[in-house]
C-alpha cells in the first residue's frame, strides 16, 4: 500500500514515521516534507495547498491513502478533490473543516449545540469592536480579561489574550485594523477569558463512531511560566494527569459526541481528527477552540505511545468502518515533546542556519527527533521555519521522559536555537 502525507511540519514527520511502521505500507510520500521526512520517506516537491497537483500525483502513483496534515489544504477542499477523483483520503471536507477555518462558525455551532464555551461577541470591523470595548470598559485603567481572536486561519497566532483596555484595543487594531493576519481578520471574536489549565483531547471519527485518544497538554505561550505571545505550540506531553477518567468521560459526553451530532445536523458531517482545545475551569471543561486535524506538537507524543497500526485506523475512518476495528493499544509510559525554535519566533527569524548534533540526540534512549521547519542545503540540515524540531521522548514517568527529552535537546545546536525549559512542569507540580 502506498501512502501520501500532505504537509511539512513535525506532525507530518510523526505521521510518516508511524505509517511507515505498518507492515501493510510499502511506500510513504510526503508533500512537500522536510529534512527529516526525506530520511524516512520520499519527499515530493508539491506545496500542501496545491490541490490540483496533489490530486494528480495521487492518481499517477496509485496512492492507497492520503493523510492531510495541516488545516489550510483541508479548508481549501483537498479532501473533496481527492474523493471526487475516487481516491481514499483521511480528513474532513472543506465544509466540515469550517469548524477550524472560521472561529465564528465554531462559536455559533457550540452555542446552538449547548456545548460549554466562553461567552462571546462577533464583529465585522475594528470600529464596532473597539466601540464595544470602550462602552463596556469606560475607564482606560479598567482590567479587561478578554481574548480577541481572528476568525480565520492564522497559523496559531491569531489569538491575543488581553488584561487591560489598552491590550484589547491594540489587539483589535492588529487583527481587524492593520490586518496583521490578512483575511483571517475580516471578522473577529471577543470572548471572556477563561481561567484554568488547558488540555487537548483528540478523537478520530468517521462521522458515526468516535475513538477518543489519551488527553494531552500543549504549551501555547512562547516562554516559561506560560508568558509571552501565543505560538503554534512549544511542547506537549501525554497523558496529562489533570484529565482523570471522570473528566475524560465528561469531555466525551458533553463535547465530542454533541459536536459530531451538531455537524451532522448542519449537513457538514465530520470525518477525520476532531481536536478539542479545552480550558478546565472551576465550572467544568469549556471549549476554547476546535481543530480539524492532529495537533502539532500533540501528535508527536501521542504517536510515540500508539502501539496499534495507524494505517489500519485511518483507513477504517476513511472507509466509515471505525466500529469494526479493535480498541487501540497504547504504551503505558508517558511521552513528552519539546519544541526547539528559531530565534525571533513567533515573530520574524533568519533561515538557513546549520543545525548540528542531530545524530547525537538520536542516540539518547527512547528519543525521536521529529523535524518541522527544516530543509537541506549543500548536505547540511538548516532551519527553514519558526518551530524547527520536536524532540520527543518516552519514559517510565513524566519526569523520566522530560529528562530524556532535554538531554537530547542539549546535544542539538544552531545559532539562536531556543526552547521552553518547563514542558510538563504543570503535571510534576
Automatic annotation (TrEMBL):
GO terms for molecular function: ATP binding; metal ion binding; phosphoribosylamine-glycine ligase activity. Keywords: ATP-binding, Ligase, Manganese, Metal-binding, Nucleotide-binding, Purine biosynthesis. The keyword Nucleotide-binding applies. Signal peptide: none annotated. SUPFAM superfamilies: Glutathione synthetase ATP-binding domain-like (SSF56059), PreATP-grasp domain (SSF52440), Rudiment single hybrid motif (SSF51246). Pathway: Purine metabolism; IMP biosynthesis via de novo pathway; N(1)-(5-phospho-D-ribosyl)glycinamide from 5-phospho-alpha-D-ribose 1-diphosphate: step 2/2. Residues 107-319 form the ATP-grasp domain. The keyword Metal-binding applies. It catalyses: 5-phospho-beta-D-ribosylamine + glycine + ATP = N(1)-(5-phospho-beta-D-ribosyl)glycinamide + ADP + phosphate + H(+). Pfam families: GARS_A (PF01071), GARS_C (PF02843), GARS_N (PF02844). Its EC number is 6.3.4.13. Its cofactor is Mn(2+); Mg(2+). One of its GO terms (biological process) is purine nucleobase biosynthetic process. It comes from the Bacteria. Belongs to the GARS family. This is Phosphoribosylamine--glycine ligase. It comes from Stieleria maiorica.
Amino acid at each position: 500500500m502506498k501512502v501520501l502525507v500532505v504537509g511539512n511540519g513535525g506532525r507530518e514527520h510523526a505521521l510518516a514515521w508511524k505509517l511507515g511502521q505498518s507492515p501493510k505500507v510499502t511506500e510513504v510520500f510526503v508533500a512537500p516534507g522536510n529534512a527529516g521526512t526525506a530520511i524516512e520517506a520520499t519527499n515530493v516537491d508539491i506545496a500542501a495547498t496545491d490541490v490540483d497537483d496533489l490530486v494528480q500525483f495521487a492518481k499517477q502513483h496509485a496512492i492507497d491513502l492520503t493523510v492531510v496534515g495541516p488545516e489550510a489544504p483541508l479548508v481549501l477542499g483537498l479532501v473533496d478533490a481527492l474523493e471526487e477523483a475516487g481516491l481514499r483520503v483521511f480528513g474532513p471536507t472543506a465544509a466540515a473543516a469550517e469548524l477550524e477555518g472560521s472561529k465564528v462558525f465554531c462559536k455559533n455551532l457550540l452555542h446552538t449545540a449547548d456545548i460549554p464555551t466562553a461567552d462571546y461577541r462577533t464583529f465585522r470591523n475594528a470600529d464596532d469592536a473597539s466601540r464595544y470595548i470602550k462602552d463596556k470598559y469606560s475607564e482606560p485603567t479598567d482590567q479587561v480579561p478578554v481574548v480577541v481572536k481572528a476568525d480565520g486561519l492564522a497559523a496559531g497566532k491569531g489569538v491575543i489574550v488581553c488584561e487591560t483596555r489598552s491590550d484589547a484595543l491594540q489587539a483589535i487594531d492588529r487583527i481587524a485594523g492593520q490586518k496583521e493576519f490578512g483575511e483571517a481578520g475580516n471578522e473577529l471574536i471577543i470572548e471572556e477569558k477563561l481561567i484554568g489549565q488547558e488540555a487537548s483531547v483528540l478523537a478520530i471519527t468517521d462521522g458515526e463512531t468516535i475513538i477518543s485518544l489519551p488527553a494531552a497538554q500543549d504549551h501555547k505561550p512562547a516562554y516559561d511560566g506560560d508568558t509571552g505571545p501565543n505560538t503554534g505550540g512549544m511542547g506537549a506531553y501525554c497523558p496529562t494527569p489533570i484529565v482523570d477518567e471522570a473528566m475524560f468521560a465528561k469531555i466525551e459526553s458533553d463535547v465530542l459526541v454533541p459536536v459530531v451530532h451538531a455537524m451532522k445536523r448542519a449537513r457538514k458531517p465530520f470525518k477525520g481528527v476532531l481536536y478539542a482545545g479545552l480550558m478546565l475551569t472551576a465550572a467544568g471543561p469549556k471549549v476554547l477552540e476546535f481543530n480539524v486535524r492532529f495537533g502539532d506538537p500533540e501528535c508527536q507524543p501521542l504517536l510515540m505511545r500508539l502501539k496499534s497500526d495507524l494505517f489500519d485506523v485511518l483507513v477504517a475512518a476513511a472507509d466509515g468502518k471505525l466500529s469494526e476495528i479493535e480498541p487501540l493499544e497504547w504504551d503505558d509510559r508517558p511521552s513528552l515533546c519539546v519544541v526547539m525554535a528559531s530565534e525571533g519566533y513567533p515573530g520574524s527569524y533568519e533561515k538557513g542556519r546549520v543545525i548540528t548534533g542531530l545524530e547525537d540526540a538520536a542516540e539518547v534512549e527512547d528519543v525521536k527527533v521529529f523535524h518541522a521547519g527544516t530543509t537541506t542545503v549543500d548536505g547540511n540540515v538548516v532551519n527553514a521555519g519558526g518551530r524547527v524540531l520536536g524532540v520527543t521522548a518516552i519514559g517510565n514517568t513524566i519526569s523520566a521522559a522530560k529528562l530524556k527529552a532535554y538531554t537530547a535537546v542539549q546535544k542539538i545546536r544552531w545559532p539562536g536555537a531556543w526552547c521552553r525549559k518547563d514542558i510538563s512542569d504543570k503535571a510534576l507540580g
